[in-house]
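# step 3/5: fold
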Amino acid sequence: MKIKRKSLALGSSAPAMSEQRIVVLNTGSSSLKFAVYPLGHDKRPILSGVVEGIGSHASLRMRDSVRDIDASNPVAAIHLLAERPDGPMAGDIAGFGHRVVHGGPGLDHPILINEAALKLIESVSPLAPLHNPPALAVLRALRERFAGLPHVACFDTAFHRGHPAVADRFAIPEALYQQGVRRYGFHGLSYQYIASVLPSEIATGRVVVAHLGSGASMCGMIDRRSVDSSMGFTALDGLPMGTRSGSLDAGIILWLQQHKGWSVHRVQEFLYHDCGLKGMSGLSNDIRVLLTSESPAAKMAVDYFVYHVARTAGMLVVSMGGIDGLIFTAGIGEHSAEIRARVLARLGWFGFKLDAKANKIGGGRITASDSKLPAYVIATNEERVISNATSDLIKI
């Protein structure tokens, strides 16, 4: 049944548009990405943008312009966007789609939001303290402001829920596993998109996908399905990231608490905000800054990142029983030719041979014609995955 909605963009002076649309939101602690799609499947976006620096020096990037705004938190940013006649919430809104990072063991597919669903998401929010709480706050604010419109939550953990048991477990008692202490994997919406657009020569094969950005992870796919991931119980696990530690000996946490007297809150803040590239370099969490720095600590941080991307690729090859290709995606994966080249140099023994010119251009195949294995750069599109799922659910 088609849902007919009127424009509910409060404060909008723009005329309602006849084409129904889906508003997609990707909420973080200090950023809010948005995109507007026509209702339907695999449509091109009407509008996209991002609010960055929320809580400090906030700015709105939209329609090739950047302007400073006042947004102390993601909910304030949402209300500001809703009041713009040229913003994402103008026009005939059919529904909202939301990225939610952690769905826990039970939320393994997109769902229509009601109060029961909100409570389920809230129950697993301690496992994604940077991501789930602001996403929930935005969800609740929009449900109040746009009363009656449907909302769909899409979970980053869902794509990985079919892992074999040996990839899904920790070496802990069964009772804890049954309570949800298990490996989840993240960036699933990104991997789901990449799986849908894999080049034909590797689409049904064994593929390592490297989602490298401020948050970074890697996934092993066989026939477009996830069989293993670098991330586990939370989005702290696996690769070193912009400000997150990546894999860490649990004994370090015990040592910080027992011998340094750190509280749980201080440990959490440390692992999520003060580690990774930022912590190692003492300079920045931005790989572009580190690549141009002469600081030995910055060079070590980059070396460490490259080393662990290559190391994790090897781990995933074991999980898959071989490899047929590799994909780079997300901010660093799509835009840093140097990082791609250095990773592939470490993986040369697998049979990767870089095409330097193609790698510099980026996009498409970046390995030479005589390379034994292909590597590609593919831009991810989580928003399209969310839009498709939202369109499907609200038309039921």
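# step 4/5: annotate
The two ends are 6 Å apart (CA to CA).
# step 5/5: archive (pending)
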